[in-house]
What does this fold into?
Amino acid sequence: MISEQIKRFKAELPEGVNLVAVSKFHPIELLKEAYSAGQRIFGESRVQELLPKIEEMPKDVKWHFIGHLQSNKVKALVGKVSLIESVDSVKLLELIDKESQNKGVETNVLMQVHVAKEETKFGFYPEELLKFFGDKRYASLTNVRICGVMGMASNTDDEERVRADFRDIYKVFQKIKENFGAELKHFNSVSMGMSGDYQIAIEEGSNYVRIGTAIFGEREY
Ligand SMILES: *Cc1c(COP(=O)(O)O)cnc(C)c1O
It folds into this structure.
């Protein structure tokens, strides 16, 4: 039961750790069930799936975009979501800023950090991201708020590997916060942990866990 899972997570997650219910590939009825159980933050990974869901769900839902965002979808997305968690290039960040200027909105974003061993995962390598901040490339952005980092651990049963990955993501967050926190007033969020590894992620400093399968069951692609 979805409502039971939502309640279980609300009870289990420590204070200050937010639950993002990852509803991608699931029909609207299931999202409504989660909403009725009190869930307000939902994560989606495809713009063409997200937009109709926004129309069908109550207005107080906070939508997080968590998938790879293509440049040609930025226009459709900006102004619709409360957080874009998956900014994986400077070009994309600048595009989001520009579109936010055009629309007269401010867009909250997280920078995606790549630490996992898989080749296919998107994101900045830690040193790349630190260089981006070191070069003060963010200073020219006017309409994006950089609120923190998002990352995924390697897809493995090796818990120590997973923990080391989360630790690496958190270290990047901490370094940025230490060095640039005075200028980046909103830089407070660390989004890491999914159904299979969220406990470890929380132990390593996560304050947003992105849970799909453990709430909604297996996805049918
Ligand atoms: C699908 C997805 C999740 C949720 O994964 P589960 O294992 O189903 O909990 C979390 N984060 C991202 C970025 C995803 O794409």
Summary: Residues 22, 24, 45, 66-67, 194-196, 210-214 surround pyridoxal-5'-phosphate (CB under 6 Å). The radius of gyration is 17 Å.
